[in-house]
Amino acid sequence: MSGLNPPRRLTLGKQMINQVRTGVKVTHRAPITRANSFGLFGSGRFSDVQLQPDLVRDRDQITLMDRCVAYPDEWRVYSKVVAGDHWHVFEPLMWSDHHRRWVYSVDQVRVPERVSQSLVRKYGRPKERLSQRRMPFNALRTAVEITRVEPRWLNDMGEAEARAEGIVVGARVGDDGLYHTNEAAPLEGGFAAWWDKTYQSEDYRWLSNPLVWVYHFELLPVELGEAVA
């Protein structure tokens, strides 16, 4: 299926990229951050995704008043991303003295020779990693297709939802976005730790329980460097 919108970049930490690639992480939450003229948070782009009344409460600007009956379209919250859209997963790269080639930081797999040669010409053999944002498109090897989008309150999460977000037991929160949890702690606590490290604004922290989009997705078969429309 072709994406309805141009492919977007999905930017994640190293551990979470691996969770996507292995099929462990199959959902991704992101805060609803834009507001329309009526004070509701949303992108303003019409789609088949809307905020359901039973999810609305009186809190800050997320308020659904009786007036919404007169303005049903204007009072709805919409997602820019819809089912059928595609996301490209860009990854950090690094030079490996062992392989004598540039490799993917996630799993130390070598990038194609032609890509490595191009990176050597441009960056040489640096000690530091090349960030996801600078990964050349011809090194792309992971893409996902959105299967469903829904609005939820952030704290509306149990063990199954935490696992779908890529939570693993025994990991720690680090610069690469690993989750921190253990066998004695609930998995959603690990997600909360990662979320608060990623979104540090008080408006979006776990205890603030913001409204978020939940994107459900599945892996797409991708030939190395292949564009996914």
CATH architecture of the largest domain: Roll
Question: What Rg do the Cα atoms give?
Answer: 20 Å
Counting structural domains, the number is 2
CATH domain topology of the largest domain: Sulfate adenylyltransferase
Low-confidence stretches: 35-50, 53-75
How does the overall form come out from the CA principal axes? globular
Provide a descriptive summary of the structure in words.
This protein folds into two domains: 8-87 and 142-220, Roll (Sulfate adenylyltransferase), CATH 3.10.400; 94-132, no CATH class. The protein starts with 7 loop residues before the first strand and ends in a 9-residue tail after the last strand. The strands form two sheets. Strands 1-3-6-7-2 form a five-stranded mixed sheet. The protein has a two-stranded antiparallel ribbon with strand order 4-5. It is α+β, with helices and mostly antiparallel strands and 229 residues long. A hairpin with a 4-residue loop joins strand 4 (93-96) and strand 5 (101-104). It is 16% helix and 18% strand. It is globular. The model is unreliable at 35-50 and 53-75 (pLDDT under 50).
Summarize this entry quickly.
The chain has 229 residues and is an alpha+beta fold. It is built from four helices and seven strands; from the N terminus they run E-H-E-E-E-E-H-E-H-H-E.
